[in-house]
Each structure stands twice: as structure tokens, then as C-alpha cells.
User: What shape does this take?
Amino acid sequence: MAAQTKIFDFVRKNKKAFYGGTVATLFLGLAVFLLGSVSGYEAKKLISSSLPGLNMLCNTIVLASATILALLLTLLGISTGTENKLKKAHYKQVLNIASFDTFLFVGALILFQLFNIPITEAENVPTTWFDAIYWATLISSSILSGMMITVILMLYTTVTNIINIVGLGKDHYLISDEEIEEEEKESDTD
Assistant: This one.
């Protein structure tokens, strides 16, 4: 029950990012659905022709996810080096991005490995399986793309918050109340 509450809380806090990722996934899924049904032999040919693109997608997502994780360390350095004391909510945002990005990284890496299995070269696989394999690859690539968009939107929100706080010096909900009280005391004494 506590895990379910955490998941709902996570989704509620990042709902704009999840809306963007969900819309992208549904759009891509709809495009896949509009392709219509294919026979086993057609699916085998389509899998053969689409595997290089799917491998490239997975490879790109793996590289992007690893880069995002590394850049989150830089973001943490900027966050801790700022004059403003940030609330724990900011660090939870960064932790959420890191968690979701790691999940995406692992998923893309697993699918990358699965897409490299030479299934279309196997002669003992029934032709009827290729239809299911074809749809599974298309749906999984749609989900991966939607998840990547979600990570990017989550990162965008966090970066804009940091720009507003550190770069523009705006009063922001992520600035600790203790710091605001200290600034008010200093302005009262002046």
C-alpha cells in the first residue's frame, strides 16, 4: 500500500511530464495500430527491415539516459553551490528524474539486447510468432519513446526551476522558508 501511495505521489508531482510522455506513447501506438494486421511472413520481413531503426532508438536512449544521469550530478553541484538554500522538494525532483531515467536506461538496454537476437534468421520459429514479435517491438519502442519524453520534460521542469532561482534570482517555492525569513530579518534591520 505504501509503494502504491509513493507511485501515485510521484505521478501527481510530475503530471505534466507524464501527460507529455503518455500523449507521445499513445500517438506512436495509434500510428502502429493504423498499420493494420500483418501476416506472419509480412511481419518477418517488417521485423528485418525495422530492426536497425529499433536498435538505433535503443542505443540513442541508452546514451541519452547515461548522459542525463551524469548531468544530474552537475545539477546537484549547482544546487548545493547556490547562495539560496533549496527545499528538499528540489532534491526529490532530481531523485525522481534519476530513478525514472535509470529505469528507462535498463529497459532500453534490455530491449537493445533482445532486438539483437537474430530471430528472423531462425528457421525453427513458427511464422505465426512473427506477428506477435512485430507488434511487441513496435509497442515497446512506443513506450520507450514516451518514457524518454517524460524524462526530458521532468528535466526541463527542474532546470527551469534552477534557472529561476540561481540565474534570475526569482522568489520561488523551492527556496527554503528559513532563507526567506533570514532575508526578511535583514531587510527589517536595514
